[in-house]
Amino acid sequence: MTTRTWPRHAMTGLYWFLALQFALGAITKYWPGETFFGPPYATQFAEWGYPSWMRFPVGTLEGLAAILLVIPSRRTRFLGATTLMFVLTGAVTTHIINHDGPVESWAAPTHLVITGILALANWPRDWRDLLRAPASHTARAPHPTN
């Protein structure tokens, strides 16, 4: 393995690890009963002051972001990381407002920092790159001139 490939493999592993965490989080938001994270999210969202149905949009955003993180494209990884930054900003704010202790709230700020770093690492050269169709990777043969 060359020196240049191991960091790329490590980053791919990090993307997959985070994607699995947020996919699991998305599934538990839809789960009707208790999870291994604690009481049902319908109950937790109500205790935090949100309607219990709010767990569905949050879970959907987490699931979509998880998918975007594993697609090997700077554009999709940027979109996935920034989506998670919005969700996690809400989570951190919720934990602060509700005076949750460090045991209940350490994961959200930690993940917010990590996804912020990933968003910066995948920042597009030009914001319009997010709106453009992906460039074709097939090289065309030069046109013969006789």
The oligomeric state of the chains shown is single chain
Please report the number of helical segments: 6
What is the strand tally?
Answer: 0
What is the first-to-last residue Cα distance?
46 Å
- The percent of residues in helical segments reads 55-70%
In the predicted model, the low-confidence regions spanning at least 5 consecutive residues are none
Q: Average pLDDT across residues?
A: 86
Taking the sheet with the most strands, its summary is: none
Classify the beta-strand content into a percent band: under 5%
H/E order of the elements? HHHHHH
Task: Label the structural class.
Answer: mainly alpha
Rg (CA only):
19 Å
- Principal-axis shape: elongated
Please supply descriptive tags for the structure shown above.
146 residues, mainly alpha, elongated
Characterise this structure.
There is one protein chain. By secondary structure, the protein is mainly α. The protein is built from six helices and no strands. The chain has helices at 5-30, 41-47, 55-70, 74-97, 102-105, 107-121. The longest helix is centred in the N-terminal third of the chain and has 26 residues, at 5-30. 19% of the residues are buried. The model has no long low-confidence stretch (mean pLDDT 86).
